[in-house]
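Obj: model holo form, ligand = glutamic acid.
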Amino acid sequence: MTVRTRMAPSPTGEYHIGHIRTVLYNVALSKKMGGKFLLRIEDTDRHRYVEGATDRILDVIGDYGLSWDEGPRVGGEFGPYIQSERLSLYEKYAKELIAKKNAYYCFCSEESLNELRNSQQAKGMPSTKYDKKCLNLSEEEIKKNLSDGKPYVIRLNVPANRDVTFHDEVFGDITINTDSIDDQILLKSDGYPSYHLAVVVDDHLMNITHVMRGNDWIPSTPKHVLLYEAFGWEQPKYIHLPNLKEKGGTKKLSKRFGPVSAIQFLEEGYLAEALLNFLMFLGWNPGTEKEIYSLEEFINDFDISRIHKTDLVAFDREKLLWINGYYIRQLSPEDLHTVFLNWANKFSIVLNPGLIDRNIGPKVLSLVQERVKKLSEVSAMTPYFFDNPKVDSTLLSEFAKEANPKDILTNFWLFYKNIVNWDKENLDTLSHDFIKKKGYKPKEAFMTLRIAVTGAVATPPLFDTLEFIGKKTTLLRIESAIKILS
Ligand code: GLU
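Output (holo C-alpha cells):
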C-alpha cells in the first residue's frame, strides 16, 4: 500500500499558522513512508469563498518550503484537484446514495426549516435537527417536485440511535451516537456538494490512506464513517492532531498576541526554516533533547505514535523568537543579507540604502546578528550606522554618576582626535587605558559615549560600532552631544 496523505484547504481567507503545522505533518508522514502528499482545494462553500484565497494559500505553503506531489499547479493522475471542477461527480454519488436509500431528496423551504428550528428551540431541545419530513414523500410526489423544478437538497439518511465507532490513531476508539447527528445535507440546492460528501468522495477517489487533520474535525468523522459505509468503501486511517492555543491560556491564537496567519509570521521576519522547526514540536516530539531539526531530519524521525494525545498544544511565542534568533545566528552575514533583502522585497519593506548595499549591508547585519530575533527588528536596531541619531539629554546624563558627562565627552573628543589607527582593537585598548588614567568608571564613561554616538543604550559592541561609524562622524556626534549638555 502506498501511503497517500492530503491537505484540503478551503479558500475562505488567509491560511492559519496551524494549517501549516498540519501540512507539515502530512508531508512528513507521506515522505517517511515513501508515499505521496497531495493538495486539494475545497471550494464548495460559495458563501465563504474568498476571491484570490486559493492562490495565496498555495503561495504561502510554498513560502514555507513545503511542496505537494499532486494538486493544483502540479497536476496528477487523480485530478482535477479543485472541487468546483468536479461537481458532476458529487451529484452522481449523491444520487447513488438515493438509489441505495441512504439519502433522500428534501424540498423543504428555508422558511419551513427556520420554523422547525424555532419550534425545537422553544421546546428546549439541546440541538436542533431536521425532522426527516421529506423522507416520507412518495415516489410520485418526488417526481412531481423534480419535474416542477422545485429547489431541493439531498440529505444523508442518518440511522436513529446507533453508536458509530471509529479508530483514531492518536485518540484510540471514538464512539458517537447518531442521535446527535443531523441528516446532513450532501448536495446543496446550488448543485454544490457539502464538505462532508465532497471530502469522502474525493478522499476515496484519490486513494487517500491517512486522513490527518485538526481534532476540531472529530465530530465530523462519524458522518464520514456513515458515508463510507453507505458507499461500501474502505475507511482511511484517521489521525486527529491537537489544535493550537496561546501559551498560558485555553483560547485559540489571537491577534492580540501577535501574528496568527501563516503569511504574517513571514512578514514579521520569521524565517521559514525556523517556523517549520517550531511547528514540528506543536503536537509531536522525538522523545530526545534534540530541538533543532531540518525538514529532512523531521521526516526521518516523524512517527505518528509520538503525536501528542491532547486537544490543545501551547503556541509559545517566546520560544519561536528564540528559535528564529538561533536560525538567524547560523547564517553567514552574506547569506543573512540575501535572506534579509528577499524578505524586504517580498513584503515591500522600505530599507535604508545602506542596508541594501552589498558592501555595507552584510557588515551592519554582522554587527547586530547576535541580537536580532526577527528580520523586522533590523531597521530599528541600526539607524545610527547611517544617520546621526537624535540624542535624548536625560538619557545622555543618566549613566555618569560620579564624573560629569560633559567632561567625559569632551575628554573623549580630545583623546580620539589624535588617534590615527581607528580600528576596533586599537580603540578598545586605548580607550580602556584612557578611562583608567582619567579615573572614570567603565560603565559611566562607555555608556555616555555610546549614547552620544548612537542615541541608543543597546548597540553592538561599542568599538565595533565606532570603527564602522568612522573617526570623523564619531567626533562630530560627540561634539553635538556636548552641545546638548551645554
Ligand atoms: N476543507 C476542510 C478545511 O477547511 C478540510 C478538513 C479535512 O481535512 O477534512 O480544513
